[in-house]
Amino acid sequence: MQTEKRIEMRSLHILFILVVVTWLGFPLRAQEAISIGTRHTLFSHVLNEAREYWVYVPATRPGEKEESYPVLYLLDGDSFFHSVVGFTRLFSTSKVSSLPPCIVVAVLNTNRTRDFTPTCSAARRDGTVRPGDKPEGGGAGQFCRFLTEELRLAVEQDLPVNGQHLLAGHSYAGLFTLHVLLNYPSAFDTYIAIDPSLWWDKGYFQKQVERQVDKVNFSGKQLYVAFATQPRLDRKLIHFPLTDDFIGSAVPRMEKRHLRVVSKKFPEETHGTVALPGFYDGLKTLFFRSAVGISLPNEPL
Q1: Looking at the DSSP assignment, which residues form a beta bridge with residue 105?
Q2: DSSP strand pairing (69-74 vs 103-107)
Q3: Are 284 and 292 in contact (CB under 8 A)?
Q4: How confident is the model at residue 19 (pLDDT cuts 50, 70, 90)?
């Protein structure tokens, strides 16, 4: 009798162990991670610091030939990486879009004011400078060198790229995007600037456009620029008049210099909410097919 009880207890123990192992196995399978990218670090000799970036590479399906891809360099990358990867995947599989699958390189920040602004300035968003305000910024030229001389080299050594480059940024990074377009137009093929901080240094960029734009040849380049125009009644800003001046004056002059420009206003968005609608609309609009199978002219990719 005791022997039978021992056998029965041993059987129950074995059964319990099997149930536990089986039960543990299901959540392990259910929790398998979905990964859309990889993390990388590069030491920049130009900036004298280590810089992190994340990379998404389109998957090659079984039986498909390995392709080469355009590279979209996304600034403020940790904020927008997942969404913009989703946008590229959506449009690259859409019949109404000519956007091919893209590698997305999301650049993370260390000091965005330093890296994204073209001048050193103490001016505030309302154009004033108050006692105690310290000048900052002015590193856009160096950061452009990092992107084009160091980061691009690292990306192209490791990934199947086709030589086409897109640059996308919002706010300070949108200002940087415009700065690169005006001063180094050959650096990228497509520029997407969402609500660029035109107020920086009392509207410095607009003044630079007026001085330089007639000397620049933008052939083969395209720009999407979008602005959030919901009024800010709580503060005085010089940004909104500069926005109207940019669209009314700078854009036509850029178009005369052979730049394809799409400019839009988002009246229901604020500066803090316009980034993702802008990136989405920029990729949709620049690569929209007017009819299925018919591409718009001047598509660079």
Answers
A1: 55, 73
A2: parallel
A3: no
A4: very low
Q: Quick one: DSSP state of residue 288?
A: B
Beta partners for 16?
A: none
In 3D space, the residue among 179, 165, 172, 283 whose CA is nearest the CA of residue 224 turns out to be 283
Q: What are the helix (H) ranges across 222-290? A: 239-245, 251-256, 275-286
Extract the tokens encoding 292: 């299925």
Residue type, 150: E
Is the pLDDT at 34 greater than 90? The verdict is no
The residue count of the chain comes to: 301
Cα 97 to chain center, whole Å? 19
Please report the pLDDT score of residue 13 as a whole number: 55
Q: In angstroms, rounded to a whole number, what is the distance separating the alpha carbons of residues 147 and 152?
A: 6
Any residues with CB less than 8 A from the CB of 247 and at least 6 apart, and which? 227, 263, 265
Q: Is the pLDDT of residue 243 over 70?
A: yes
Name the amino acid, one letter, at 45. Answer: H
Residue 184's closest CA among 204, 212, 151, 161? 212
Tell me how far apart the alpha carbons of residues 240 and 230 are, in angstroms, rounded to a whole number: 10
User: What global pTM score does this model have?
Assistant: 0.86
> Which has the closest alpha carbon to 193: 289, 258, 281?
281
Q: What's the CA dihedral at 41, 46, 47, 53 to 10 degrees?
A: -30
